[in-house]
Amino acid sequence: MNRPQARPTPSRGWLRWLTPLALSLALVACHESDFDPRDPARGPGSAVGDGSTITDGNFPGGNDTIPAALDVEPPQGAQVPDCGADCLSFCDAQGFENPVHQGLCTSLWGVGLEPQPVYANEACRRLHVDLTGRFPTRDEVNRLCAGRSWDDIVKTLLDSEAFVEVNQRHWADRFLYNTRALSIERIYDMDALVGKLYRGEVAYDHFAAIASAHPVLTRRHDTAGDRAEALFHLFMGRPPLGSERSDLARLYTLWTNGYYDHPTLNMRLSDSFIRYRCVDEEGNIDPESRGQCTSILYGYNELILTPDIRSVGEDNQMWSGLLRADEWEKLQMPGRLLARQQAFWETAVDDVIERYLGYDLGTMVPEVRAALVDHLLAHDGDIRSVHHAILTSVAYLQSARGLTDTDHRWTFGPLKQVDSEVWLDTIKHSVDYELSSCDHRISDPRDLLDADSISAIALLEASKWEMREDGDDVRRDYSDLARNLGGCPANEVGGRFKIVSILTTSTQLNFVNQVCNPAMTEGRGAAIETLLPDGVHPDAAVTPQLATQIVEHQVETFFGRPLTDDEREMAATHGDTCERARCRAAEFARPGCFALLSSSEMLFY
Amino acid sequence: MTDHNAKKGFKPGRRSFLKGMGVAAATIAMPHVWVPNKALAQTEARGAAKHLIYIRLSGGFRFSAAFNGDTASEFNPFGKAENVASATEWGVGKLFELAGWLNGDQGAERAALGMRPVTEMSDQMAVLPCVDHEPLSARADGNHNTGLQRFNTGYVGGGTSFLTMINYGLRERFALAREQGTVALPAFSLGDSGMAMGAGPYAAHRPPVMQGDGFERFGFSAANTLPDWAQSMASSVDERYRAIHHPQNRAGVDAYMQTRAATELYAEIFNDEILKIRNNSDEPIDGLSNRQLATIFGDSRAARNVRLALRLFHFGCPAVYLNQGSYDMHSGEEAGLPRHMEELGRILSGLEVALKAMDHPDGGTYWDNTLVVCGSEFGRTARGSRFNSARGSDHAGDYATRWMSMPVMGGLVTAAGNGGKSFGMTRPSDLAPEGQVYSYRSLLKTLMDALGCDHREFFPADRPFDDLFA
């Protein structure tokens, strides 16, 4: 695309005073075009659902009684468990409602293996991260988990908007949202659709069907074959075979890529278009070429649209924004075809297993996968049912700690690495540190500013990006950090990553150094009050007792758990050292903050 | 076709004779049977370069006005330089005559150091006039997004950047340094994250991306910042967390603790005075002081990055990537290009002077051990005119967009007698290729090979080539 040479742009300092007005001005300006910068979603996702849920969300299986293992010699080492007649009778007799327990019993209790009992605090912290995207403080752990059944806790979080947002980010990574490759309206539309999926308003197969013909998928890829392949990766968990790719590609031949000029955003947006194929010059189905628009691998499935007044130009193309509901439905054929396959549902289940357990239990113990698929289908494709089943299962509720007698992966709990956003948001929240944020729906916020339109700025204002004081750009403090650590991805080519490398560790240590300010540089770091227990003055003289109180406060705030005995002893010892050096409370709290916040306990959970 | 194809007779040339002698000598010298690694296609210069400065002429560069200047005015409206260094085969653009940086007192100082216009040092570099992202494609890729993806990764949609490949390809060297308790810095991207992509097994090898020339982001040292008790506390918190977990869950924590220890070594380097390139120090480092480097290169962003690159090389960094100029001139190119090319000329001339003046820690000069290469996402076209209607140029699907005429400069090139050479050529009237066309990926592979990288996992359909170094 040719672009005019960049010209100097005047400072956007005027945004400072305009900001409060931008949204209302934009709303007035956009009234005629029905464009709402607070909700710019446009596409097939918006038309789905009426706000009602497909199930009541009251899934069974959250209160199974956990049995003691059958008294038999457990399989040794990595030996495959062999469930004989006694084992089968034992498992049948348990009457498990949770599908994970139904599937796992014959590889766990029934063969003499015991799960690793979880610590209440460990479980609550893990659940909080997985469903809200942030480590909890100890107060939050107590509020969420104390005195309640685990089933109740899980259901509460599954009903929360935080759970929806975590999953919206998950699918943003999978679809590789990028506002240069995709229309921002389409991204918002898919994001809203994902929201409906995780609020239980759309069934998983319906979601896949819509996604299969959604511009976030079709526009992201160049050829029909690439689109077919992307669909396979998303919903079948593998690349297609050559025959599958070429066959499914025939249902993507109608799509082509193009641009349209958005009237109110003043931006040229990348979007999908329909190029009429398999029709003759009069627009009637061409009997000679109709086979090129027909899939035969999953039965005879023809996908041909006929042009009308909406198509324009020599190429006879139509912008996908003009598609009617019945045409969208036709175009969603690839997703519907895949949803008829058992592997489609197995992939849906495996994805959830992998996210919560961090290993492939569905392959290690296929009975778990099969039971979860039945469970999902029994709940009309409500994907929340799978989340609930796994989160309330013993596979999830195991400790990652201690030793086990055997090497079977499902006999001890997961220890996973956090996404960079979890790490950053936790630090931001726990010490009230001034840090902005990023928005997974807008990869290149600068483009909205450069559009020089009120609507584009209003859209940005309504997003999670924060404007800089001078109004010239958004704040990049959060996104620069997150992108270095693998999060907040721009999705230009690759996407999110989670690694441990010298580069990421250096970045993390440096950031924690900024936050905790152990060198006590004037005016830097988090407010000292957040690092000290209530009522402790920063100038108070450190004693072993005060040092212990400070470490206890920080452990509870950062790690969400009580101080252990050995930590108590460690704190007193360091406090004693500090006392002899005549430390003040602040001089102990800031280095202590660094020691704790930079630890692996903030990275793995 | 017969069952018995006539085999070509074996004619031992000078090169194959020497190769044979080399193999024989190595076999005799080695106490074990030496089997060359056939899977690793390699050049004669494999591992001969220790450093690479890779300069992106940002935004799409009008190569025909610079490194392939012997063309019609529609491709090079500025003309060809007339007085160039003898034995220069490549077409030196007239704009390289510009050398305002040699004027005045400071200019005299630069001249005294040996700086000269590119036209006078054109015999120090070889040019590949026809480097193409996709030689088998019907037309050029003139799209900014995909062109840049190709430039950074070799492919549209490529997920691993060139610098990541370099770091990955040298992973054993870095590991060896760590085992020996030292640090060899990885490749660095100075200002562009597109050169720092990598996922899966490559993610850990992504190059650090520097914004500006400070190392604040990487320079934290616990030893220099924390009291002893706090260092001990930090270690014990990690050790405790590791110890309580199931052995099969410890790998991530182990990796974190190891990298944390390694960052201490990095911090020492990043806090080193040598890297404070704007301190105006007169202390010679490898033969040139920071003040001298400032005199040579100036203080523009690109110049600071070049100065920093030379200092990073001191610590074993194999490659630095940086941007120069802003060449996406759809308008105002007629007036704007000379200014940017004058800066480019200064950088190239300065690099010749600095690299030759700097002693390499491993012996010889940096010139002997360094390659300097310029490229861009594509060339530029004015579609049959000298300029478009806005006195600029665009990018489309034609030859002018297609060819990146890439210069390669350094001791390896001149030592092989290839300084001033042109590997390939184009027809002046229409830029049709009349010689060798190189795939961009094979050039990247050649550069990786010269650096001694293990490049077997990258660009399997492209081979490194010997032309530049043989």
UniProtKB/TrEMBL annotation, chain B:
Organism: Lujinxingia vulgaris
Protein's UniProt name: DUF1501 domain-containing protein
Lineage of the species this protein comes from: Bacteria, Deltaproteobacteria, Bradymonadales, Lujinxingiaceae, Lujinxingia
Database matches in InterPro entries: DUF1501, TAT_signal
PROSITE patterns assigned: TAT
